[in-house]
Design brief:
This protein is mostly beta strands. It contains 1 helix and 8 strands. The protein has one domain (42-171): Porin (Beta Barrel), CATH 2.40.160. The chain is 10% helix and 62% strand. The longest helix has 17 residues, at 2-18. The N and C termini lie far apart (43 Å).
């Protein structure tokens, strides 16, 4: 765990050194900042396949472009896991920071979320470290992406799924 915290700290320090700006220089405009709202659908893999067959969710994000190619933001939403027989549905609420690298103003991107995933409707397991790498395609208004979502929960259980997501960019006016 100490190595993970050190890795995260070095990552944030690196991002900060990419574009060290004075706070008063940050200008929020429709060209560099927006909300993203979308849907996801996935198939659980690993440990989760024993008791759930599909998951669907809501993806909510806020993004700020620190350079023309690098975006930072906050991510949240809700992922609902539909249970198999003899089990109950449950959910996961991520609260994460994210980084994305856009190769061009329109085209492919990759990035990842990193934070905490809060589990709902579960006993003896409140959640854990949340990681969600993504690769996708974007234009001015839309993003479509594939993801691998992993929440390292308590009791040595990894909640994993692979899937597709789509978000719409809601720009500030």
């Amino acid at each position: 765990m100490k190595k993970l915290i050190l890795f995260i700290a070095i990552g944030f320090w690196s991002i900060n050194s990419i574009n060290a700006q004075e706070v008063e220089d940050v200008k929020i405009t429709p060209d560099n900042s927006w909300f993203k709202l979308g849907l996801t659908v996935g198939v659980p893999i690993g440990d989760a396949t024993d008791f759930t067959s599909v998951n669907a969710g809501l993806d909510v994000r806020a993004q700020y472009m620190i350079t023309p190619n690098v975006g930072l933001g906050l991510a949240s939403g809700y992922n609902h896991y539909f249970a198999k027989d003899d089990f109950e549905d449950f959910g996961m609420i991520p609260l994460a920071g994210y980084i994305r690298y856009y190769f061009m103003p329109k085209g492919f991107f990759f990035g990842s979320d990193l934070g905490y995933g809060f589990l709902t409707n579960t006993e003896n397991n409140s959640g854990g470290l949340y990681v969600n790498p993504q690769i996708g395609y974007h234009n001015h208004d839309w993003n479509i992406y594939g993801y691998f979502q992993n929440t390292f929960t308590e009791n040595n259980f990894n909640l994993q799924s692979i899937g597709l997501g789509v978000t719409y960019n809601i720009r500030f006016k």
